[in-house]
Amino acid sequence: MIFSHLNFGIWYLNPKSSKMKQSGSIVNRINRRSIINSTITKRKNVLLLGSGFVSKPLVDYLVRQKDLKLIIASNSRADAISLIRNHKEIDIVDLDVMNQENLNKIIQGSDVVVSLIPANLHPIVAEACIKHKKNMVTASYISSAMRELDNRAKQAGITILNEIGVDPGIDHLSAMKIIDDIKAKGGEVTSFISWCGGLPAPEASKVPLKYKFSWSPRGVLIAALNDAHFWMNGKKHKILGGELLKSHFPTVPIDSKYEFEGLANRDSLSYIDTYGLAPLETKNAMLRGTLRYKGFSDLMYSFLKLGLLKTDPENVQHNSWPDFLDYVLFGPSPTTKPVMESRIHKIKEKLDLSEKNQLMVDNVVEALKNLSLLEDPNQTTTNLINPPKIGSLSPLDTFCILLQDKLKYYPGEKDLLVLYHEFEIKLKNGDKVTKTSKLITDGIFGSTETYTAMAKTVGLPAAIATEMIARGEIHDKGVLAPTLPNIYNPILEKLDYEGIKIEESIIEKGMRENLKWSGSGIWN
Predict the structure, then answer these.
(1) How many angstroms separate the CA atoms of 260 and 263, rounded?
(2) For the domain 170-294+411-450+503-514, what is the CATH code?
(3) Tens digit of pLDDT for each residue in 163-172?
(4) 10-162: what fold?
(5) What is the separation of C-alpha 32 from the centre of its chain, rounded to a whole number of angstroms?
(6) 124: closest CA among 105, 106, 99?
(7) Helix-, strand-, coil-residue percentages of the chain, each rounded to 5
(8) Whole-angstrom distance, CA of residue 414 vs CA of residue 444
(9) Side-chain half-sphere CA neighbours of 511 within 13 A
(10) Burial zone of 202 (CB within 10 Å; 0-12 exposed, 13-18 middle, 19+ buried)
(11) 273-327, pLDDT tens digit by residue?
């Protein structure tokens, strides 16, 4: 997202209330719940930076809190207006994060700042919050730049609570609740395995990658190129970024209704300290992974081998998406004009598969046709976005533009959020048990009755944390993650009330001993 320079100004909007829906709708459920006593006189100002699709659950929740006054700062007037359509007395201000004068002005009048803008901009906002001694909430991972602000935030006497979405966020809450309970009873966690994935519901997944994007695909593609570090069966393991997709976990048995595979997620080892489980050497496993439907990793690895995930910027223009693929396959100056036969031959050459695995070539060709990268006389493509004509973009960034258009959610389609923790536990009496916590929830795109699964599991935890900070219920200062009991217990309780319910179970045997990261075995 690029924040353009906008003139600073407040628009006072008073939209007409929409007609109430039947019992069970969000509007009725929100308005029939009274949270606080009406005698409260001083309202705290909450400033929301950003108006993306995860913002709506946060806005809807916060306007129910009669002791809070919400202000939305956005670089998109249309998006901001859509957020307040059913709400009165919400102010909107123009946002230009890079304009320090404007940023300082809007932050100065707030009590809590919620930053749902891109994570690389959070440190800029945090600097202003420290300057004006205003609390802050984000749903993003604590970056090194944010962590460096810890002492200054403490000196300013403010709370900067990060990682309070779903992953990171609800994963911390549910994990720490169980871990602290085990410790309190004299037990020990001997293995921790965690999986999380935001996916299309199965009926909406019949597309290449069996995946859809609700925001920029870049994060998903880049994540597939990162190194991964984890601990399994008493040993440290490292998978290099270029090998991560090939070395996926081909089977992750969480629920019989879904066929999941998994990818190791960056540095799992750091969570041994985050969750207070050190020393690492005493554990059987420490693994955090990302869930995908079976087939995702092999197809994405094929795209990697073809060159679609290259990250070096190239100053080149493409007249069509097949032209872009020709450039990726043959380079800028092929000796002869590519035709379908030579394209498929080049694809086979780059994939470098054995004869027994040639079916994968057919799958890749079919996916490229579906994505309009190969011409297909059997498909008619309408309203397809064109390749960018200006600027210097990497093949990965150009590919992202296509994926965001071709693999988007349509109104009425469902998404799915799956979060799963598995703990092997040694009890105080020496007995061993395996405990799980599981959250599976779905949502609908384009619905006025409900949210998407991703929006509600990111927006609601952030909203509840904001409410608690505004009311002075979180006293810890500095740059924090939600791993303290006084933070995670109330948030989990309120999430349960909002319908985000985490199921905890004791099972006979966990997945650890059967987990392999050898991939599908089709690659040389």
Answers:
(1) 10
(2) 3.30.360.10
(3) 999 999 999 9
(4) Rossmann fold (3.40.50)
(5) 31
(6) 99
(7) 35, 20, 45
(8) 4
(9) 22
(10) middle
(11) 999 999 999 999 999 999 999 999 999 999 999 999 999 998 888 999 999 999 9
DSSP label at 443? E
Query: Contact at 8 Å (CB) between 159 and 126?
Result: no
Question: Three-state SS for 323?
Answer: helix
| CA distances for 51 relative to 57, 217, 367, 430, angstroms | 11, 19, 33, 51
Query: Which ranges of 157-217 does DSSP label H, i.e. alpha helix?
Result: 170-184
Supply φ then ψ for residue 464, to 5 degrees.
Answer: -65, -40
SS3 148: coil
pTM: 0.89
Cα 472 to its chain centre, rounded Å, is 28
**Quick one: tokens of 283?**
């554990």
CA angle 482, 488, 491 (to 5 degrees): 115
Type of residue found at 489: N
Q: State how far the Cα of 72 lies from the Cα of 60, in Å rounded to an integer.
A: 12
Tell me which of 60, 91, 94, 167 is the catalytic residue.
Answer: 167
Active site residue 167: yes
Q: Which two tokens stand for residue 184?
A: 């309190």
User: Domains of the chain: which residue ranges?
Assistant: 10-162, 170-294+411-450+503-514, 313-393
Domains 10-162 and 170-294+411-450+503-514 share a fold: no
